[in-house]
Design brief:
192 residues, alpha+beta, tt1808, chain A, six-stranded mixed β-sheet, 4 helices
Length: 192
């Protein structure tokens, strides 16, 4: 075991800490480190609600889960709480706090105005979600006023083979398995 690995926390230690954290704190675990997600503000929550309505209107066979804990990264040594996860209806029923990502069709992250957003949402999360085989990763980026659709997960190296970015106001296609189009004009109203 390397000195760096020995100094990193185990997933079991993380889960113990996360289970004792108050509901007002959202913890994640990546690369042997705990991450704290900033609490969602009103605009952030409104964007998740907007997306839920769009997806449910077009795909009523799906459920949108808020803050669903997923086991991600090679050998499931990471833990993430995406802002939203779309999966078949009742897919996560009976799962514990940290579910296997198999069956999730899309994960969604909306950037927060904090110092970890770049590392977490733009770099670590696409790698982890792609490696977990989640078909789509949708990043709503409030800093750049863009929507980025990651598709074609690469389980070998992580990340996605296709990445399409559009400015707020443009139409965005979420490819299969979602198969829907989003008009992102309204998102302009929810940024600082």
């Amino acid at each position: 075991m390397t000195a760096e690995r020995a100094s990193q926390m185990s997933v079991e230690e993380f889960e113990t800490i996360a289970s004792a954290a108050p509901e007002t704190v959202t913890l994640e675990f990546a690369n042997g480190r705990i991450g704290v997600k900033k609490a969602a503000d009103g605009d952030h929550s409104t964007m998740v609600s907007w997306l839920a309505r769009r997806c449910m209107q077009t795909r009523p066979d799906l459920d949108l889960y808020y803050g669903r804990g997923l086991r991600v990264e090679a050998c499931r040594e990471g833990r993430a709480r995406p802002d939203a996860v779309l999966a078949p209806e009742a897919h996560f029923a009976g799962h514990g706090e940290w579910a296997d990502p198999d069956g999730a069709l899309m994960v969604v992250e909306i950037t927060s105005y904090d110092s970890d957003t770049d590392r977490r949402d733009r770099h670590e999360k696409p790698t982890a979600y792609g490696q977990a085989g989640i078909p789509l990763y949708l990043l709503i980026d409030r800093d750049s006023c863009t929507v980025t659709v990651h598709s074609g997960p690469d389980r070998q190296i992580g990340g996605y083979r296709a990445v399409h970015t559009a400015k707020f106001g443009e139409k965005v296609v979420l490819p299969e398995p979602m198969g829907i189009e989003l008009d992102t004009e309204i998102l302009k109203n929810y940024v600082r």
